[in-house]
Amino acid sequence: MAELDTSSGGGKKGGKVRSKKASTRIDLTAMVDLAFLLITFFILTTTLAKPKAMDVTMPDKEEKQTDQLPVPASRTMTILLGANNKLEWFVGEPGKSAPTPDTYGKNGIRAALIEQGKKIQAASGKYMIVIIKPSDKSVYKNMVDALDEMKITAVQSFAIGDITPPEVELLKRDGLY
Amino acid sequence: MARVKVPRKSTHIDMTAMCDVAFLLLTFFILTAKPRPQDPVPVDIPPSSYEVPIADENVLLLTVGQGKVFFTVDGADIRQQTLIQMGQKYNITFTPEEQKKFIVTNIFGVPISQLKAFLALDVEQRKNFKQPGIPHDTTANNELSDWIREARKVGASLHNKALFIAVKGDNKEEYPVIKDLITVFQKQKLNKFSLITTLRAAPKK
């Protein structure tokens, strides 16, 4: 980029021969180009999104059963996580109430959680208790998704439990194991 | 009508301010850039709607992928002391040289019997080395639970603060491995831990 030198020292008649004043301006275009290139590089390579943490609190295992309140089965919803990103849930005790196969996401378990939560609230006047029981065929993502649904649907009381053989049988019957 | 002569102006723009800003930003990004620690196995983190960022320090991170468990703990002093205590427990003496190497080893997943050999490898060799993961069976005293216990003890004694326990698991990781981890945690009466997730857009209601 050529610069028009407007501060020409010449042109005076009969004056002394002056050395032409050189402009002190440096062309910074290339430097700015380089700087922005590097900025772009660093913006694209830094991880702006910090990983988020989902806090999980497990019940104390050693605790004696005597100082725990019995949980009424009618207020308990059990979610069984099966294979192939499928799950099934039932309210009450296993074997006594028929499980409903369901999927993850908005129209699946979330709708069921909200609906059952309202029903239980209306019937007993107390909040619903949810027990998540991942089977050995489920994957880590399923567990995280299920826990996430607890947060989304604002379930007050939930826990992760170990799956029992009758519940595995239920999953097997529905082809989710 | 005489044509008005527009005086010709220089096309040169003063770049100084722009240059200043550019370099300021550049400096900022260079200083805040943190190299992402490389995972020994590819780990695809599941999304969730939780928005709490993970703590900056005092984190004990267990990376789970392909059925293997890898161990990371923050802080050079904690790492060194943990290694010494683990050595005492398993009757392995680590030389100061090996301790130094262990301090700069971000993440590892080898049984303690192979740890000496692993530390002897250089960076390039480590990349090609298939780490078998830290042994974690369901017995009461497995290596993983010893690592966690020693690190927690060291963390509590050196920094007077409890370590945050975080689990970074792969999407496709099968549940039994996670269950083993939870069992290990519960045996140590460690009932509060975090699962690392990425942010997913909050659902519309």
TrEMBL record, chain A:
Transmembrane portions of the chain: 28-49
GO MF term list: transmembrane transporter activity
Gene Ontology annotations for the cellular component aspect, listed alphabetically: plasma membrane
Family of the protein in this entry: Belongs to the ExbD/TolR family.
Pfam family, one: ExbD
Keyword terms: Cell membrane, Membrane, Protein transport, Transmembrane, Transmembrane helix, Transport
UniProt membrane topology term: Single-pass membrane protein; Single-pass type II membrane protein
GO BP annotations, alphabetical order: protein transport
Lineage: Bacteria, Pseudomonadati, Bacteroidota, Sphingobacteriia, Sphingobacteriales
Keyword Protein transport attached: yes
Protein name, per record: Biopolymer transporter ExbD
UniProtKB/TrEMBL annotation, chain B:
Cellular component terms (Gene Ontology): plasma membrane
Compartment(s) of residence: Cell membrane
Keyword Disulfide bond attached: no
One term of GO molecular function: transmembrane transporter activity
InterPro entries: ExbD
Primary localisation category: membrane
GO biological process: protein transport
Membrane topology of this protein: Single-pass membrane protein; Single-pass type II membrane protein
Coiled-coil region: none
UniProtKB keywords: Cell membrane, Membrane, Protein transport, Transmembrane, Transmembrane helix, Transport
Pfam families: ExbD
Similarity section: Belongs to the ExbD/TolR family.
Name by which UniProt lists this protein: Biopolymer transporter ExbD
Naturally occurring in which organism (per UniProt): Mucilaginibacter glaciei
